[in-house]
């Protein structure tokens, strides 16, 4: 099995354009051909964890906190007027690297793009999906 590409970046055996490195999370530029906007940044926990569902509280908190700081930096350094956080967990959601990561994408009024899913899912659920979710917490 190939080693995790994000783990290779974190350990220094693969190159990266670093934005920030912290004890529990790091931020770096995506590959140039996958960048969605100037300054698009990936935020990744240092600890290898496959996705949102398997992340421990430290990795999740550090990743989320760093994503917030990256978004603030985008506003200050790039003049971004908004940001979009994109996170996919599982192949059916579009996750392509099996290491939890959050895309922080800066936005401006003249973007001419949206990062909101369209069209909405065609999947149908019998019953009230929010009631089914609420039952999981009882």
From TrEMBL:
UniProt short sequence motif Histidine triad motif, positions renumbered to this chain: 99-103
SUPFAM superfamilies with a match to the protein in the record: HIT-like
Domain HIT, first and last residues per copy: 5-114
UniProt xrefs under Gene3D superfamilies: HIT-like
Name used for this protein in its record: HIT domain-containing protein
Organism: Curtobacterium citreum
């Amino acid at each position: 099995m190939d080693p995790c590409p994000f783990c290779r970046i974190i350990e220094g055996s693969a190159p990266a354009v670093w934005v920030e490195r912290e004890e529990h999370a790091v931020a770096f530029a995506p590959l140039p051909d996958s960048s969605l906007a100037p300054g698009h940044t990936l935020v990744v926990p240092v600890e290898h964890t496959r996705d949102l569902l398997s992340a421990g509280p430290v990795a999740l908190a550090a990743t989320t906190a760093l994503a917030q700081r990256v978004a603030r930096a985008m506003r200050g350094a790039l003049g971004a007027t908004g940001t979009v956080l994109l996170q996919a967990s599982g192949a059916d959601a579009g996750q392509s690297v099996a290491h939890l990561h959050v895309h922080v994408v800066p936005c401006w009024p003249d973007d001419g793009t949206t990062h909101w899913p369209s069209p909405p899912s065609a999947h149908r659920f019998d019953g009230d999906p929010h009631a089914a979710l609420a039952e999981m917490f009882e």
